[in-house]
Amino acid sequence: MLNRAARFFPILQELKRQLPTEGELLEVGSGSLGLGEFWSRSFVGCDVRFPMRPVNHMSAVVCSGAQLPFGDRTFDAVVVSDVMEHVPPVLRETVVDEALRVSRKIVVFGYPCGQGASELDRKLYRDYQDKHLAPPIWLEEHMLHPFPDDSLFANIPDGWTTRVIPNESLSFHYWMMRTEMFRFWNYAFRLALRVAPRLVEKGLQSRNGEPSYRKLFVLTRTTRLDYA
């Protein structure tokens, strides 16, 4: 629970700053919940499958992030959170291009970034094995491909700017994921988020820094759009 808050809270800050009140939002690779756990406004979520019934305020679309069934500049904002590390390297640039294509203003990518994050997840995977616990599916998938890094956005088209935000220091991420292996702490984190969400958010913000486990890449369109 806490790890999802750590991932989405900084993304939500960007959306609240840049997304119009009535703006249209797409989350690529949302699963059945996605940012809908913390975002109360309606949004479109797309994924290759939805293992559970999606949250009520999500309009679910089954598709691949490499071939989005939406027209150019359909959404004011697009979020791609903890997806790119699951995408085969040969398809990653295509997913980036598709997200940029369907966005009018802003795209936020967030993913475990680089060798340090990859080594940390392999250490966490061994911890599960040492405790004779089944690793989560997402962690199993993290073992399949090398993590993307900053170079993923080396060839973005003209008309976009990129800002990088560190998310979760390596040491904090490891502590958090080790702690969430135990049901008691999962319950405690869930209770804290319900009772004092702003306090939890401030605490999580203080744990963002380098070397970081995850990085957020905020891409903003700089070219003027013609709405006529």
Question: How would you summarize the topology of this molecule?
Answer:
Blueprint (H helix, E strand, L loop, with lengths): L1 H17 L6 E4 L14 E5 L10 E5 L12 E7 L7 H13 L1 E10 L1 H17 L6 H6 L17 E10 H10 L3 H13 L1 H9 L6 E10 L7
Parallel strand pairs: 1-2, 1-4, 2-3, 4-5
Antiparallel strand pairs: 5-7, 6-7
Helix pairs in contact: 3-5, 6-7
Number of strands: 7
Fraction of residues in H or I helices: 25-40%
- Placed side by side, the strands forming the largest sheet appear as 3-2-1-4-5-7-6
Distance between the termini: 44 Å
Total discrete domains:
1
| Largest β sheet strand count, sense and barrel closure | 7 strands, mixed
Rg result: 17 Å
Low-confidence segments, ≥5 residues, pLDDT <50? Answer: none
Structural descriptors:
Rossmann fold; alpha/beta; single chain; 22% strand; 7-stranded mixed β-sheet; 7 strands; 7 helices; globular; 228 residues
Structural commentary:
The protein has 228 residues and is an alpha/beta fold. The chain has one domain (2-221): Rossmann fold (3-Layer(aba) Sandwich). The protein is built from seven helices and seven strands; from the N terminus they run H-E-E-E-E-H-E-H-H-E-H-H-H-E. Strands 3-2-1-4-5-7-6 form a seven-stranded mixed β-sheet, sandwiched between helices. Helix 3 packs parallel to helix 5 and helix 6 (183-195) crosses helix 7 (197-205). The longest helix has 17 residues, at 2-18. The radius of gyration is 17 Å and the shape is globular. The protein starts with a helix and ends in a 7-residue tail after the last strand.
